[in-house]
Amino acid sequence: MALLNFYGAIQQVTGSCYLIESRDGSRVLLECGMHQGYRDADERNRAAFPFDPGSLNAVVISHAHLDHSGLLPRLAAEGYRGPIYATVATCELMELMLLDAAHIQEHDTEWENKWRARVGKDPITPIYATADAERALELRRPLNYGARHEVAPGVRVTYHDAGHILGSSIVELEVDDHHLTRHLVFSGDLGNNCSPLMHDPSILSRADAVMLESTYGDRDHRCTPDTLDELAEILQQAHRDGGNVLIPAFAVGRTQDLIYHLGRFYQQGRLPQQAVFLDSPMAIRANAIYNRYIDQFNPEDRAALHAKGVKRIEEWLPILRCTPSPEDSMAINRIKSGAIIIAGSGMCTGGRIVHHFKHNIWRQECHLVFPGFQAKGTLGRAIVDGANSIKVLHQRFAVKAKVHTLGGFSAHAGQSELIDWVKHFDHRPELYLVHGELEKMLILQQVIKQRLDWTATIPEPGEQVVL
Fold it and tell me: Global pTM?
């Protein structure tokens, strides 16, 4: 029998990891993501894999975000030597993200060990090093959308556009089982139909089992025009208040969306700020990759860029200033008003945004804009939930800034979009909800039953089912 094992992103948002085993012995790992945000995230990322990495025939990755690909270096360090399949653009973005993650871990570990030495604690080691990331990257095997490819004996994969970020995919797996073929479809992260630049998620209709993400299973997003009007008003108010605007953003996906929308504001005369700083080396490098794939943007936005003669998305926003070096980043802190600062990380778990908190979040005239989901346990979630003070860089700061949450910018499908996508499957395949917090899954499960009369299962961590 063909088996599906649920190892990660089960009743939580991060750490995607699933193992498919064919009757004939093929073992294919679907996703190898990091746990992020939760208090025990570091412990989980260091825990032994629930399988032998050396026994795997192949690894299949849906997209480059670290919660889907971030433990690939550990997998390689512990003996995996097979191919890692992903779309062409995802292979490029993975190089950017995995090397950056390794660098951050090495740097943060060095910084942490200096502090631990001063207080008499034992040193720690990074989850993985740059050499491990490089070893994993050597195993990449790029595939085009729509190309059916045998990744292991009796297991074939086809990638379909998920519309989430550049290169993101819905993963269709065919697994031979005796004289039958079992079809498993994993939604990956489905895009929001209102997101700029990306296509709408591809529609599939055939499956024996479907794994559906449920990040926003409890609600729909606001429509884009309303969200953009709200952002424009926030920017106007920040201008009147005389403060800066801080925007924590994911380097891949969210940042490019923001540049596109702010560029629209600039051209429409709706952007009062004098400068927009992109203070994220990884986002700056991600922009270069996006620029190479402009032909994959959706036709409407691609035409708008071409009409202005834009060949690089940075050209869409003329007042954008990129600050790749630490010195460039520190210089921003001399600016007390009139700036928009886009910096990583998206959930404020590290990166340069925390340094800008140090200089701005205690100022009443500052405006802090969250354009996306903040997972439980993250600093971003604590701020959104109303924290009066936060601790960053071993110091505590009052939260006096005005905090705004704009769900309409999410790169994830909302509840109705999830249901609209999954309803196209014929013959009611087995439906499993993954990649979401339990309370959101329970709401989505109930709504699917009400609207489609279809029972969705919420797997338990480590559960194994027959395909």
Answer: 0.90
Question: Of 36-40, 46-50, 164-168, where does mean pLDDT reach its minimum?
Answer: 36-40
Q: Which fold has domain 224-409?
A: Rossmann fold (3.40.50)
Q: What is the DSSP letter of 270?
A: -
CB-based contact 297:316 (threshold 8 Å): no
Provide the residue ranges of all domains of the chain, joining segments of one domain with +: 3-219+411-466, 224-409
Terminal CA-to-CA distance of the chain, rounded, Å? 7
Question: Which structure tokens are listed for 42?
Answer: 């570091």
pLDDT at 132 over 90: yes
| Sole residue written with tokens 């943060």 | 108
Residues 341-378 pLDDT 10s? 999 888 887 789 999 999 999 999 999 999 877 877 88
Task: Cis check for the bond before 187: say yes or no (omega within 30 of 0).
Answer: no
Please tell me what DSSP assigns to residue 218. Answer: T
Strand locations in 332-453, DSSP E?
339-343, 367-370, 389-392, 395-398, 402-405, 430-434
Q: Which two tokens stand for residue 152?
A: 């292991």
**Class of CATH domain 3-219+411-466:** alpha beta
Q: What is the pLDDT of residue 29?
A: 98
- Rounded CA-CA distance 57/55 in Å is 7
Radius of gyration from C-alpha coordinates of the chain: 22
Please give the Cα distance from 418 to 93 (Å, whole number). Answer: 25
300: which residues sit within 8 A by CB, 6+ positions away? Answer: none
Neighbouring residues of 325: CB distance < 8 A, sequence distance ≥ 6: none
Q: Which residues pair with 152 in a beta bridge?
A: 155
What is the rounded CA–CA span in Å between residue 460 and residue 6? 7
Angle between helices 438-452 and 415-422 (to 10 degrees): 50
Contact 27, 54 (CB under 8 A): no
